[in-house]
Amino acid sequence: MTKNNEWKLKDALMIAICAVLFGILLLGATYAGGILYGILAPAGMGSLGYEPFYGIYFMPAAFCIYIMRKPGTGMIAEILAAIIETLLGNFFGPIVILSGVVQGIGIELPIALKKYRDFGRPVMITSAVVCSVLTLIYNCFVSGYKMIALPILGVMLVVRIISAVFFCGILTPILGDRLSKAGVLRGYAICEEDAPA
């Protein structure tokens, strides 16, 4: 676990800024998924429409915990981003806030099991995979995915995992590391510790 887990004003401000920025990004991903859903629906594959964008939904948690490295930062960022997305007009409504809780747990759980000491690529990729599986299970119970044919559900999971690994396991660490090297994240744990290569 990181040496200093005491929350400061700058931590709250960072999460708030990320929540707004990612909330806008999540809304964009939702509308993009809706368009792809409409394109794929005539072929009976509409359910796959949102899957390529799922990794974007996990990014608030992945990014905040990667740069701040404190317990709870991923969960809080994910929930706040979902609230912002809802307030901005997500057509799924407040249910996305509950989705944010599940997504926050999925990203943060593998890191918590490492006692917040390891933020390397393998751990971030593991978080992306765990989050993908956990959210699909959640979708089966809450979103009616259990009615989808098993082969299509399997394809959905594979696409979701690929999306999550790209956006959270690869892109997020690259973004975090580059911002750190640019001095934008000075004062946060990512700059105080040796960032993974």
Automatic annotation (TrEMBL):
<feature type="transmembrane region" description="Helical">
    <location>
        <begin position="52"/>
        <end position="68"/>
    </location>
</feature>
<feature type="transmembrane region" description="Helical">
    <location>
        <begin position="122"/>
        <end position="141"/>
    </location>
</feature>
<dbReference type="Pfam" id="PF09819">
    <property type="entry name" value="ABC_cobalt"/>
</dbReference>
<keyword id="KW-0812">Transmembrane</keyword>
<feature type="transmembrane region" description="Helical">
    <location>
        <begin position="148"/>
        <end position="175"/>
    </location>
</feature>
<protein>
    <submittedName>
        <fullName>Energy-coupling factor transport system substrate-specific component</fullName>
    </submittedName>
</protein>
<keyword id="KW-0472">Membrane</keyword>
<feature type="transmembrane region" description="Helical">
    <location>
        <begin position="80"/>
        <end position="102"/>
    </location>
</feature>
<feature type="transmembrane region" description="Helical">
    <location>
        <begin position="12"/>
        <end position="40"/>
    </location>
</feature>
<keyword id="KW-1133">Transmembrane helix</keyword>
<dbReference type="InterPro" id="IPR017195">
    <property type="entry name" value="ABC_thiamin-permease_prd"/>
</dbReference>
